[in-house]
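Standup, Tuesday
Yesterday: got the pipeline producing structure tokens again.
Today: sanity-check two examples.
Blockers: none.

Example 1:
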Amino acid sequence: MNLIVYELAAATFLSTLLGGLIILRFKKSIPYFFAFASGSLIAIAFLDILPESLEIAQKVGVSVRAIMLTIIGSFFLYCLLEKYFATHHLEEEEHSHPHILGPIGAGSLIAHSFLDGTAIGIAFQVNFSIGLIVAFAVILHDMTDGINTVIVMLRNHQPIKKTTLFLLLDALAPVLGLITTSLIVLPEIVLTYVLAFFVGEFIYLGASTLLPETRQHPSKKMILMMALGMLIIIVFTSFLKQ
């Protein structure tokens, strides 16, 4: 692959890292970032991941119903996970005990970032100009991936050291994804289900884990931050489709 491909991959690393470091630096403003992340996660699910999953599904002959059932199953799975761990760790939660959903949610964001990297590599294999557009869009929204990774970890009472580790992994993920495209290609039928699973998870994380924070803080700025998160993803995805 052309050297510029790896330069763009390095840019995704820096973009993700920058987003996460901003959150770690301004922890007192985290409730506003919760609102921002809620909006951006929900928008990413509906405007980025779901359309991509449906597009691939149409190509490989997977029904829309199968994709929707996967989304429902993913959403329900995360409901069970949170219910189970909330039931068994209620006392610890009251004392800000680390919650397992932090690493689970952040881990899926890392997987999503990995797929972002593979998207860049595949796009460049198809067409150089398309590769540039996809890379630019990934670089822009990877900052929100870094933000979301840190927020999901901190929201579930994970320590700063562990949160920083997950942020670093999230920043490395698109670079590794790009390298992987030169070694192996994920079958499209598998990819469409993986993306659908992410849709269900991101909707759950945004609507059930992060959105309640906006109700606990009556400031109108919370709603504005959630709207900003959605708007940024709307702009990025609109740019990508042009």
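Example 2:
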Amino acid sequence: MTSKSRRRGAGDATAMPPVDVARSLLDRSRLKGGIDDSAGYLDLLSDSAPPPSVSQRVMQNRLLARVYEGYWRPMFTRGFSLGGRGTADYQRDLIDRLAEPGARRVLDVACGPGLHTREFARNLTGDGVAIGFDLSKPMLAQAVRSTGSERAAYIRGDAHALPFADGTFDTVVCFAALYLINDPHQVIRELARVARPGGAVAIFTSLATGVSAARSVRKLVQAVADIHVFERDEVTRSFADAGLVDLDQRIISQGQFVSARKPL
């Protein structure tokens, strides 16, 4: 993609369709098989193996994908604030700060049905694209149905091995998912790797605080819900180990937002 193509205006009819922009950003050397685009998103995975965790298998449910944005996710987000709005309000402010206009590239890892992907796509211009990346077919199918003609495209793949070259994206986010992922620290390394120098990386995830800080409670949550509850400095340490700087950790009740940038 040339710098000229990235400067095209929002109304320019020659701008590439977002799915083609997404395809052009794939690093072919990192792909293990073909690309199936028959469902409206780029599917990079075979179906030979089930998702590795119980919680990820739950995300394959078609009904959950349909009610996720309207019911499940708002309820789950409020649960992190023990019924309050602190988590949702801060996330709204953070997305507003990160959703800068222009021909920018944004990666939304574990995007679910694409709510935040669409928000990041709203202000983009030219061949700017917001790519939603997820493991779940039903979630991505719902994302495609909900997106319309915005500058958003979707890819099905494994977040442990993102199929992009180093420094591809201006902004990389992963909200409300790291606690469900088999190796979250490997995913953080991948988030940092694909961010461009000077680019932003931001996540929202669980935190061991209050009642959840008790080891017995954390073990119970892990055993019953297959959710990892992170220690206070676990994620920030992983960000630092991945080479990210200007770390900011915002703790709100049972959750944490961590944001940083990749050094120039």
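Quick observation on example 2: The beta strands are 42-43, 105-109, 129-134, 152-156, 169-175, 195-206, 245-252, 255-261. The radius of gyration is 18 Å.
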